[in-house]
Design goal:
The chain has 353 residues and is α/β, with parallel strands linked by helices. It folds into two domains: 2-179 and 243-351, Rossmann fold; 185-238, Alpha-Beta Plaits (2-Layer Sandwich), CATH 3.30.70. Helices cover 33% and strands 20% of the residues. Strands 4-3-2-7-14-15-1-16 form an eight-stranded mixed beta sheet, with helices on both faces. Strands 5-6 form a two-stranded antiparallel ribbon. Strand 11 (207-210) and strand 12 (213-216) form a beta hairpin. Helix 1 (18-29) packs across helix 2, helix 7 crosses helix 10 (242-253) and helix 10 packs parallel to helix 14 (332-341). The longest helix is centred in the C-terminal third of the chain and has 18 residues, at 300-317. The protein starts with a strand and ends with a strand. It comes from Methanolobus profundi. Residues 183-212 form the 4Fe-4S ferredoxin-type domain. GO terms for molecular function: oxidoreductase activity.
């Protein structure tokens, strides 16, 4: 049974700030040794988003890594969809706009999968649905890592935290495509009006218009579904089982970074600003649950299960419902697959002091 440490938001005050809580939790989960080059994996937020983990929290972890003798860098990866984080230059520019710079954190921000999102290391993981996965090379090259995750809803996985930060956030574009490709859609030509919105939004040139109707080249399609989000007519049709199948791949892909850095990763979940959408959204919607606190562990699966349970308890206490209701998706699928492949355990002991 894995230990998960918890500090409640209800305990926060002048003498017990979030920074104080991070300082208290860090030594319990830190794998950092003297001389380690340490990746601090975060999500810096899409341009326009305002509810990502704040730079001051990241700076606190940077300082703690330095005190432990580590050499830290803060990092994230490129994305598959049209975004201000599509390439490595835009990732750095967006991170800087959102407050993540050498000056604010005391450590450089590095795009872990390079300028074009193809700088990676392939890892054989031997899963049921994923044989191998490509992990961003700056993460693969690190001696140890601290993963800081914002707990929030997610339209594909229901809930996003540490496991998603591993199984998506630590991958290059090819790895992300491996997870997303089960969602490659089809076209309902009877509903397609030939408006070209899907053609224009796809950064992979996977869509084109033939005789006034959209067609998809599945050899080019990454399955991320920016086209689906752009269509106002219901003409883009993902497979009905794609949310479940994507979660299966997501859970297994999380084992890639864990296998590369065995017992060299510590995890912190920041359970504040529980928005329905992920930090990839270019806006921050009203929260679906109140602030809960900070959890930390050496086990990402146990950490996410404990965090999810705390959110569900909070929602039940405050009037009913659960995380599954936010998007109609059960996030336990990806956690169960992460456990089965060996990324961690669903069984945990929650330690509040």
């Amino acid at each position: 049974m894995s230990e998960v440490f918890f500090r409640s938001a209800e305990e926060i005050g002048p003498d017990n700030t979030q920074i104080d809580q991070i300082i208290d939790l860090f030594p319990r989960i830190s794998p950092v040794k003297e001389g380690d080059i340490v990746a601090i994996k975060i999500h810096p937020g899409e341009l326009g988003n305002t509810t990502y983990v704040r730079p001051v929290i990241v700076k606190t972890v940077v300082d703690l890594v330095k005190e432990a003798g580590g050499i830290p860098f803060v990092t994230d990866t490129t994305v598959l969809y049209p975004s201000k984080r599509f390439n490595g230059v835009d990732v750095l520019n967006t991170a800087a706009t959102n407050g993540f710079t050498l000056g604010t954190m005391g450590a450089p921000f590095i795009c872990a999968d390079g300028i074009h999102g193809d700088d990676s290391v392939s890892v054989d993981i031997g899963g049921e649905v994923v044989d191998s996965i490509t992990v961003a090379s700056a993460i693969a090259s690190a001696d140890s890592m601290i993963v800081i995750s914002h707990c929030k809803g997610h339209p594909a996985s229901g809930f996003g935290a540490a496991v998603k930060n591993l199984g998506m956030g630590c991958l290059d574009k090819a790895g992300k495509t491996e997870v997303h490709k089960v969602a490659r859609p089809s076209i309902d030509i009877d509903k397609c009006v030939g408006c070209r919105k899907c053609v224009n939004v796809c950064p992979w040139d996977a869509l084109s218009l033939v005789d006034g109707k959209a067609i998809i080249d599945h050899d080019l399609c990454c399955g991320e579904l920016a086209c689906f989000a752009s269509c106002n007519f219901g003409a883009i049709v993902p497979p009905a089982d794609s949310p479940e199948r994507m979660q299966e791949k997501l859970g297994e892909a999380a084992y890639g970074p864990v296998k590369l850095l065995p017992e060299k990763i510590g995890y912190i979940n920041w359970i504040f600003d529980l928005t329905p959408g992920c930090d990839c959204f270019n806006f921050s919607a009203p929260t679906f649950a109140g602030d809960i606190g900070i959890t930390a562990s050496k086990d990402p699966v146990a950490l996410d299960k404990a965090s999810l349970d705390l959110v569900n308890e909070k929602m039940k206490h405050d009037g009913g419902g659960c995380v599954n209701n936010v998007w109609g998706i059960d996030p336990m699928i990806h956690l169960e697959y992460a456990e089965k492949i060996g990324a961690g355990s669903l069984k945990y002991d929650l330690i509040r002091k």
